[in-house]
Fold:
Amino acid sequence: MERLDELHRKNYVIFQDTEKFCFGTDAVLLSSFVTMQKNANVLDLGTGNAIIPILLCARHNSGHITGLEIQKDSVVLAQKSIEKNLLEDRISIVEGDIKNVPTIFKGRKFDVVVSNPPYMKGQDINAQDAKAIARHEILCTLEDVVKAAFYVLKSAGSFFMVYRPERVVDALAVLRENKLEPKIIRFVHANVDKEPKLVLIKAVKGGKMGCNVLAPLIMYNSDGALTAEAYQIYYGEA
Amino acid sequence: MERLDELHRKNYVIFQDTEKFCFGTDAVLLSSFVTMQKNANVLDLGTGNAIIPILLCARHNSGHITGLEIQKDSVVLAQKSIEKNLLEDRISIVEGDIKNVPTIFKGRKFDVVVSNPPYMKGQDINAQDAKAIARHEILCTLEDVVKAAFYVLKSAGSFFMVYRPERVVDALAVLRENKLEPKIIRFVHANVDKEPKLVLIKAVKGGKMGCNVLAPLIMYNSDGALTAEAYQIYYGEA
Structure:
């Protein structure tokens, strides 16, 4: 079922298909975690319904944002949201496979690459299911995403990703092996006394060793209300 | 200057030389983070004045704990504290180099290995300074410690270490490369809104991929008092 949701930012909206992957905390926190120079050229690997490019447009004075997406249905939804938000000049969607990035973007380099890659191993999963494709390593693995990011980034360009803490060792290892050195790490906890649900990572192409682990991002106070920081991320001014 | 300090646990005390490395939060938190089966055989790599073995004796029904230390002066201090605490039956100190572990412990295997390894790069440091040796990679690197731990651990044995967050990527990478898979990670923050000062890591020899990042350990409330958990670690019953 198709549905139009508000994003609480600049009146932007998004078309979502409730039978497919719908955006969640991942996309909101990743777009808030991203930092970039004004007019930076940005690529979102596995953009889905373009939720991350749209949120980035709301938050940043980005240059052009390109979203790469392999699933035809998602590309159609993404286009619809981009037109509805009058963002055709700022976002474009390319239909294609992350593994073909060297061909698709031959000769093009980006300042910033972002991704919310699949984080579950892909065995025994229905490969026709769009939700499964977004979450599981069916059509691409974390390593495919990281290799693609390395390929299209300028030297010293930044890669931002959101991932699951139980695979943080894999993420950090794959990033370093592929010369994207992890520089900033932040864990996201529902409550201060709970294990983290997400981890946000910034890596720099050719960066020096040595990273900065930030204070934890806590989403809820003990009374169940959003913390001041989480409220700011969801509803605050960009 | 030599000094006798209380440990707030079972009336144990420790002799420290204020011109050398004195124990701190690192040792207290590491000994609290360690888990072990009753009667586990334990090795502490770079034991210094034996603070970690003594704290482990206070907290755990460990079997025998061996401390390996390269600095003669520290070995003498360690022996003095062990005798003062009547722990000669539970702790023994071996003078030797972590890099010679395969020779020193030929044929011996341990259930648990712990270490508070040096965490600063060793360039341009006075190699005669005992404080510097404890903190900098002069006489051994993190990789030397991890290789030694792998060598002396039984299959599926546990390695516990405390380290600095700015080098957590190095630590996780070196552990995995040496077949000690990181399984539990905990960051320690002075306050909830501050970056972590320490990271505690448990790795398992030959363990499967997939790790558990715990809730942050917060040391102080906003009023400056120890949190309930930190108080328990410092002064609570074992």
About this structure: Residues 72-84 of chain B form the longest helix (13 residues). The two ends of chain B are 31 Å apart (CA to CA).
